[in-house]
Amino acid sequence: MQPAGPPAYPRRMHDGAWVGRSVSRREGSDKVSGKLAYIDDLSRPGMLHGVTVRSPVARARIRGISFGPGVPWDEIVVVGPKDLPGPNVVKLIDVDQPLLADGEVRHCDEPILLLAHADRAVAERARAAVILDLEPLPAVFDLDAALRGDVIVWGSDNLFREYRVHNGDVDAGMADPDVVILEGVYDTGAQEQMYIEPQGMIAEVDAHGVTVRGSLQCPYYVHSALVALFELPADRVRVIQAATGGGFGGKEEYPSIIAAHAAVLARKAGRPVKIIYDRVEDVMATTKRHPSRTRVRTAVRKDGTMVALDIDFVIDGGAYLTLSPVVLSRGTIHAAGPYRWPNVRIHARAVATSHPPHGAFRGFGAPQSVFALERHLDRVASRLGLDPAELRRRNFLRQGDRTAVGQVVHEPVDLDAVLDRALEMSNWAEKRARFEVENRAGGPTRRGLGLAFFYHGAGFTGAGEVHLASVAHTEATADGRVKVLTASTEIGQGTNTIFTQIVADAVGLPLDRVDIAEPDTAAVPDSGPTVASRTTMVVGQLVRDAAAQLRTALVDAGLLAADADRDQTAAAFGPAVAAYVERHGSLRGQATYRPPDGIHWDEKKFHGDAYAAYAWAAYVAEVTVDLRTAEVRVDDFVAVQEAGRIVNPTMAAGQIEGGVAQGIGWAIYERIVWKDGRVRNPQMTNYIIPTAVDTPPIRVVFVPPFLGDAAPSKGIGELPMDGPAPAVLAAVAHATGTEPMAIPMLPEQLMIILEEHRHGDR
Amino acid sequence: MATAETAPNSSVAFVVNGAAVTVQGHPMSRLLDVLREDCKLFGTKEGCGEGECGACSVFVDGVLVNSCLVPLCQVQGSSIETIEGLSAHPRLRVLQDAFVRDGGAQCGICTPGMLMAAAALIRVRDDADEAEIRTALAGNLCRCTGYVRIVDAVVNACAELRALGGAT
After folding, report:
1. Which residues pair with A629 in a beta bridge?
2. Ramachandran angles phi, psi of A46, nearest 5°
3. What is the tens place of the pLDDT at every residue in A667-725?
4. Cα separation of A76 and A74, whole Å?
5. What is the number of domains present in chain A?
6. Helix, strand or coil for residue A164?
7. A654 and B103 in contact by Cβ < 8 A?
8. Nearest chain B CA: its distance from A51 CA (Å)
9. What's the CA gap between A627 and A738, in Å, rounded?
10. CATH number of the domain that A214 lies in?
11. How does pLDDT run across A283-341, given as a tens digit for each residue?
12. Which domain holds residue B16?
């Protein structure tokens, strides 16, 4: 093993032959042939099927549990809170959430009891036969009621976390005689990740320890939760990622619960246990995007100069803390947008309610606050008689400016270039003018064009990456191959292919000489969770450094010519590694995260360098609104961004396109209907995600990196979630002359807005 | 409704990917479960269990169906094709290759069903335009791609097939 140290680069840099090319997906042929095994495609000898008994009510005291007739109870493995091997908590940021409700339930569909049987149908029948004696307690679902403390459901004040940002003098800015003041309240709803593969796990427990396989994003999160629950040394708990059918954040924290449930059943049964959620259970029980309410008040001069911004940002965290403080943090940092505000005040709160805990979902709080600000700025532009693009342009952050939390923009950003490209591709000026003329002519439909401008920070927020201290390993073998060992998971976004490209370039090898280790905590180091747009940007760099060490070691040992080109390296690499291994035993590389120079975040003051890099974007939506049905159709979508160096253009565009489709869904299709804290539409039949005919052409452009061709890559996974909703609503506003302020905006909601608008006109 | 454990078994014979099989099971067992559990064909996926997502799409006697909605008793004597059988058709290999090359598969869980739906279209005609392709795929949900590259893959596969000529 080589000592961890500063990255050692080959003395001769190679042409980036693979990075920058649209290399085909590594596991592509297994995916199109149906050969790739996902968790529900796997089984173990003697395996039982586990099911979860859940609370039908939001808040109650558990008076008793009994077992109804018609079920062979002697064949059923039953696990309650008393059967756990260790503390009854889901280890995450806090330890407030139990694995199984003990004495009291705090949200609908909270797990109460676990059952397992060899026949899944029998297990299901048993689940239905469990009789829960629940004494209802007061619950709270409304943000205002929770903030007022009408019912206290968490701590002393229902407040999970509170952040304040304060720059300049907002009150003085608001009092400026030359400004126009505008206030608005913007709401966003819960959103279901709706990965097409529901969640699932298989657990095995024996004298040595615990092994789980499953659909998950973060092997070491699950590992940490199981180590705490089983009170075992780390090396006796093993977590392996199975092929995973989409995540979007939904498989960030919840898999720890399913893994623990399967494991405690397996422990009691003495046999492997599989838990697979069906769609209804998955939608009802697992996390969703935090609903939000944002009050925005601005002072902007008549020439468009932004003077003061006052934001009150509230998100509904649900019944347990889970990841809400971090979601709130990202939402708060993104709330002021990529604009120069001399005076900013942000008050941000994550509030406890009796909803099931809301959690990670692509964008992680930023889409909510970006929606509010961008929707608001459109209204400001309208008040001032300014083009919405022009208002934004006049206030863009420039190199040397500071963001609302005090981060200096060191990059030579050229946001005009990003905006101009989007305006040009969408034919902004001509179409806006033409639609306005056509819309005045009447008829049953109206058309509109709307814009959103935004940035998205990649990697963990604040000091998060420093605390993670992620590690990547590489190993060269005598057959001339390089193996990459990380905990980064392939969930469709292209991890395996991207790492292959990066490593092939760093060592100077063909792609087919690179292997990617299965994410298995028994074999791979902790390279952090696969979240926060961090895999290519953060772990990719570690992988590159760890791979480059292999080449350097061979060159330093005199086994490989320093200037060997790709063909020469391919030929010489195997024998060189064999000779090296004979001398030294092995040839391995290791890289540990070190923050870029000069990056500092002060969590107490909530101030400083919040992210190592930001991607910048301008999105334009074109819509048709049918006034008869209040249906909105997105006809065209332009997504322009600067995201540093693009490793794989096809995959990068695929990320943007998928995010845009999810953003359009959040804006106009996807509505979670709650009744007494329970999801009433937990099916694909009544929770509508966009189909191929609902989704417009999405035209994606990555502008040349601000730092030139050798620029590092920035994260892009979450970025495309921020822009579509405000752009689509801006387009609807442009088409109809209304001011929609909330999403999701389904025809039912837009019809009311259109009706009110018509009455208002009279 | 009777459950699989209590109901009488029946014997149903059909052909899967060219091979004759006989399955003992409840007549109302879902074809999806029969394919996965009895035939061990795991390429057919379950995303919703109610005919919305299309991940379980297969051909029954050449017709594209959601196998989660088809009871076992209905396939007596039928010929069923699944994703595992798709690769045997050279023209459909073109479609699979296009999905890999053009980025039509991301997480891959919708991919088998999506390919079956695309194959159903391509079998009928290889000159469909983008709107027709989108309509043909509208019964198959994908959460990763925004459909752009799936549609591209089908468009490109159609062009290749036209260039190749010949029957499906």
Report:
1. none
2. 75, 15
3. 999 999 999 999 999 999 999 999 999 999 999 999 999 999 889 999 999 999 999 99
4. 6
5. 3
6. strand
7. yes
8. 17
9. 12
10. 3.30.365.10
11. 999 999 999 999 999 999 999 999 999 999 999 999 999 999 999 999 999 999 999 99
12. 10-83
Q: Do A692 and B151 touch (CB under 8 A)?
A: yes
Specify whether B30 is located in the same domain as B95. Answer: no
Q: What is the mean pLDDT of residues A379-396?
A: 98
Residue A633, beta-bridge partner list: A624
pTM: 0.96
Residue of A nearest to B46 (CA): A197
Residues B78 and B124 both lie in one domain: no
State whether residue A70 sits within 8 Å of chain B by CB. Answer: no
Q: Which residues of A touch B142 (CB under 8 A)?
A: 196, 692
Closest by Cβ to A246, choosing from B87, B144, B146:
B144
Residue to substitute from A25, A32, A535, A660, interface B, most B β-carbons within 10 A: A32
Q: Residue A71 contacts by C-beta under 8 Å, 6 or more apart in sequence?
A: A122, A125, A126, A129
Q: Which residues of chain B have pLDDT under 70?
A: 1-8, 166-168
Cα distances (Å, whole numbers) of residue A250 to A155, A188, A357, B57? 26, 18, 12, 25
For A546, the domain range is: 28-36+470-592
Report how far residue A551's alpha carbon sits from residue A261's, in angstroms, rounded to the nearest whole number: 45
Residues A672, A190 contacting (CB under 8 angstroms): yes
Q: Has residue A518 been placed in a domain?
A: yes
- ipTM, 2 decimals? 0.96
Give contacts of B17 with chain A, Cβ < 8 Å: none
| Helix (H), strand (E) counts: chain A | 20, 28
